[in-house]
Structure formats: structure tokens, C-alpha cells
Amino acid sequence: MGYHDELLGAWADYNAKKITPLQLKAVSSNFGIYQQKDDATMMRIRRTGGIVTLGDLETVAGLLAKYRVPYAHLTTRQAIQLHGVAAADVAACLADCEAAGLRFRGGGGNTFRNVLVNPNSGLHADTAFDVLPYARALSEAFYAFDAAYALPRKIKIAFADRAADRMLCAIQDLGFVAVEKEGRRCFETWLGGGIGNKPRVGFKLFEALPAEACIRVAMAVTALFHDHGDRACRATARLRFLRAKLGDEGLANLFQDYYAQADARGYPWCPEADLKPEAYPLSTLPEGETPAPGFEDWLAVACEPLADGTFAARLFVPFGNFTQAMLARFCAFLRKYGLTRLQLLISQDFVIPRVHRQCLAALYNALLREFPDFDLTLRSYVGHIPTCIGNTVCKIGAADSPRIGERLARVLDAWLPADTPQKRALARIVTTEVRISGCPNSCTAHPAAKFGFQCRKLGGQDVLIPFSPATAEPPTLGEPLAAPIAIDDLPHCLLANLGLL
Ligand code: SF4
After folding, report:
1. Residue 328 sits in which domain range?
2. What is the 319 CA–ligand 1 centroid distance (Å)?
3. Does residue 232 lie in a domain region?
4. Distance of CA 391 from the midpoint of ligand 1 (Å)
5. pTM of this prediction?
6. Could you tell me if 187 and 256 lie in one domain?
7. SS3 labels along 377-422
């Protein structure tokens, strides 16, 4: 029986009331398909590195309409979740997605999760090389690597094309940072990090691993985790706990034992010549429009200059959520302006790489004109402070983190950029460096943020545990500070930390 048959069989049994929700979860969670708190279903679609085409988004918009799904959510792991799918529609929705090349296997459960890639890989002035093709090749190889779907716990992998985004890789189970050594493509390789319970930065397994070996290394790490991870206790099952038990040297030695078997086990190489470079078509936005008021602020906060003279433009998606009607309008907008390739961000937004400087005013004007009711340009902070989905949807959450973010946003709106560089800096920080997680699982990676907060219940009240600021070099996580703060004190705490009060 194939893995899809097993999943579809479990759903049929569940719909026929032959198995319990718990028995269903044992099968469906490995596909990122979970029951929500309201007993509707959430389905998580993988997108390696968060790359989505216009066609992908049109498919998702079509599914929302066909199955009357309330909304799609952009996740902190560069994936797309369908929220509120009726149990009776899950099998058909799954089949439609798979037919369109939208995959689920490994979306959740004890599997290898969506592979992260930092934004605008290969396009920065300080890029070593584009890592997206490597992330894609690794994901493809792993779809057929059965050990990666029967692990003690999840395994998380990330790639970054430059040292400036090293932290993203240092907090994964396995991370690859592109570096060049003697003219060769290599990866500085980080092992054993993680940001949930007992968060840790990984240690450097290799200073400069030849890039073509990345899949073999990932498979060897996965195989050793499969064999040696703690299957008795879920709380200590992640790879970083095996690292704690063996020590860095012990884990590295164990890795070498597994890596030595790479040939015998048929782990593939990843030669550069086999990789397809990522291409971002330029938009058809008109040049030279007169910008609407607020353009300079938006340019400073939302647009990043790239090495080729173009810009990456961030579209701020309120709460990371699209209803069907809004996603259909968004797709029509993208089609109209030839914006056919986007990247999902861990801030639950989109970025459009490679927009010409002369076209940015037209993009800004069009966003304002065509979405007066959907704030894609940061007219307000509401919906634009990175939080996890929170306990109204997530069964393990301690608090409604999006609503906490919203309360903070309403106070911070008085500080929106209008005049000073200080306020523009605040806008960048608030939309990138503030993160609020609904529980210690840390889905926003708040210990790796400058201003991280974790929700907790204390005496029946929701409170926040502030974290000390993480630092990028060397990668160091923030620590929980001793005194929790009341939700209402969050704006004051943040502004005081930023020296604005
Ligand atoms: S951080 Fe906790 S509450 Fe938030 S989505 Fe993750 S598991 Fe759920």
C-alpha cells in the first residue's frame, strides 16, 4: 500500500467513524493535515524555500472556492495552510493539490519538514551563490527517502546564500550556509540547533563542505537520527537532545560513521551541473509613474536593493491570511502586472524579487488603488507583527497570539513612519524583529529575534515572557527574562527597549 493509500484509507475510516481522531492523527499528521480546535481540518502545502508561482496561487484560490475553505494562511515555515477544510472534502482536496504539484508528505508529524531558504537567494550583493537549486534537489531526494518519514521527531533543514543570514541555519537541526572556498561552492554546515523546548544554536559540523555533498550529509544525519533519536520521550526526541547526550564531538563522530556508508546506501551527490538556476522574470509594471503620498516611507521599509540594481518588494499580508475572494483578487493583480514568481517569507508575507527601480512607484500605486481594503503596504501595523497562528486554531497554544500582536499594533500605529528615520527603523524592526509565539514550541522562532515574546498562562491570565535580544554574530539565542509582563504592558516594554520612551 502506498503512503497516499494509507492516508486516504485513514480518512475514509474516520469519516465512517471506524477510527478515532487520535488514530487519524497518527497517519494524517505526517502529511501536515491536522484537526483544528473547531474540528475542521487544516492542510499544510509544502513549498521548498517558499517559492510559489502565480499558477500555484491560482490553484490554491480555486481550491478555496471549490471546497468552500474559509482562508489560506502563509506560515512561518514558508508553507501555505488551508484552514477549515471539511473532513468529507480532505481526500478530494488532497488529490487536486497533488495533481497540481502541491505536496503534503512531510508537512507535519515526525518527518523532514519544509526546507527553508532565506529571501532573495542569489540576488544579494554579498551572496556566495544561489542555494535554491540545492534546497530543491534535497527536497526532491527526500520525498523518496522513507527514513525521513518515520523519525523520532521532526527534522528541520534550512539554506542561506550568505553569512548575513547564518542565524536561520544555525537554529535548525541541519543548516547550510553558502560560502566560497578556493573558488569552489561550499556549505558551512550547522548541526543540532533548534528553538522549541531547550532551544540551542547548532555547532559547526563543517567549515566548508563541498556543496555537491549536501544531500548525502542530510541523509546521513537523518539516518542517524532515525536510528538513535529518543523514541520513548517526545519531549526529548529532537536531534538537539541526542547532541546533549553525546556531546558535539560524539554526535560528529556518529555522523562520520553514517556518512562513511553514504556510497553503500546510495545517497546521491548534488553536482552543480545538474542544478537548474532559479529565474525571476521581470514585471510588466509601467515605468516612471508619479508616486502616491507615503511612497518614500514604503520604499524605505518594504524594498531592498539587490545586486543587479533591481529591488525586492515585500508585500505585507495582514495576519498572513487570504480569504478566497482576496486571494482571487491578488492573483488577478499579479497576472495583470506579470508578477509570476514570488517567495513566501517567514514573517508570513510575500516578497517579489527583481522589480526595476523605475517600476516601484507603479507597484506602490497599484497596491493602494487595487487593495484599499487589504493593507499590503503597511498603512497600519495591525496584522503585520509576526505571530504564530495562536490558540484559536492551534490545539497546544497557551494564548491567542495574533490578537496580542493586534493589541500591540494598535498602540504602535501612532509611531508609523511619516517623518523621521527613527520611525522608519521602528517599522522595519516591528515587522521583522518582533516575534510572538503562543507557547514554548516557538513557531515564530522568537528566541532568535531581537524582541521575542512567548505567551504563557499565569494564575489564569495570559502573560508574556520577554526574551533578551538574540545576536547574529556569533549566532546566540535570546534567553527568557525572569519577570513575565502583562499583555497591556507590551507596547511600553517594546518602545522602552527601543529607546523611544
Ligand atoms: S507556537 Fe505554540 S501556539 Fe503557536 S502555532 Fe506553534 S505550537 Fe501553536
Report:
1. 295-370
2. 15
3. yes
4. 7
5. 0.96
6. yes
7. CCCCCCCCCCECCCCCCCCCCCCCHHHHHHHHHHHHHHHCCCCCHH
